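Aim 2 progress update. The chain analyzed this quarter is reproduced below.
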Amino acid sequence: MTDLRIGHGYDVHRLTEGRKLILGGVEIPYEKGLLGHSDADVLVHAVMDALTGAARLGDIGKLFPDTDPAYAGISSLKLLAEVGRLLAEKDCAVVNIDATLLAQAPKVGPYRQQMAENIAMALHIDPERVNVKATTEEGLGFTGDGSGMAAHAVALIETVK
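Predicted structure tokens:
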């Protein structure tokens, strides 16, 4: 019997000077980076929460607490690979992921394909199963004024029993 499950993930991080901007595992040239315990990859964090939600694994705060020094500065793609391993332990397979970055700047269009490929590689799935898109919020709110970035992700998984 095939069991389909959907999960939604959301994450937000403040932009700050003195940090690299990492989105979907890609270092993007920009004068600010995202503040966080790990590399603060807001896009990958949303994807992880969508997957962990679908598989009933809790969330990334539970799995990778920001109080644990082992995760300080870690690549979020490494954490995503661990989420993939946990999914496999539960006989779960990723059907597809759709993720949206909310940011006024910088423009990420040239990097979206690499982001999708990085996410797919970490999960050992076909890149055709991962979609990454971005939008501005027309200057509104914390993403619009450039003080932070957010991301949403939806993931569909299947469990074969």
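Residues 84 and 124 are 8 Å apart (CA to CA). Strands lie at 2-16, 21-23, 26-28, 33-34, 92-102, 130-135, 148-160. These observations will guide the mutagenesis experiments scheduled for the next reporting period.
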